[in-house]
Amino acid sequence: MLEKEVTVLNFKGIHARPSALLVKAANSVKSSVELIKNGQIANAKSVMSIMTLGMLYQDKVTIKTTGPDEQEAMDAVSKVFTLIFHDD
To answer: Which residues contact 37 (CB under 8 A, 6 or more apart)?
Structure first.
């Protein structure tokens, strides 16, 4: 199991488009991927689950990966949080 805290850098938060990118990244691996904000847990392989977290600009979110390719999962999902979308 790996855990990493990241900051939401997208000025508009994590809405539909970034959520879809997170799901794509999470579904590219076998490991379980969870996002945790203020104690609330979301399955990163589900857009609806991600959207329930209501992640806004500058929010702190913990990524938790568990499984055979957990480092690859962590790297893929963490990368999405480094993206800033100016055209949303």
So the answer is: 53, 54, 55, 59, 60, 61, 62
State the catalytic residues. 15
Domain residues of the chain, as ranges? Answer: 2-81
Domain at 2-81, CATH class: alpha beta
Cα separations in angstroms, 38 against 35, 44, 47, 71: 10, 16, 18, 23
This prediction's pTM: 0.92
Query: Does the pLDDT at position 88 exceed 90?
Result: no
- Rounded-to-integer distance, Cα 51 and Cα 54, Å: 6
- C-alpha dihedral sign at 23, 16, 21, 82: negative
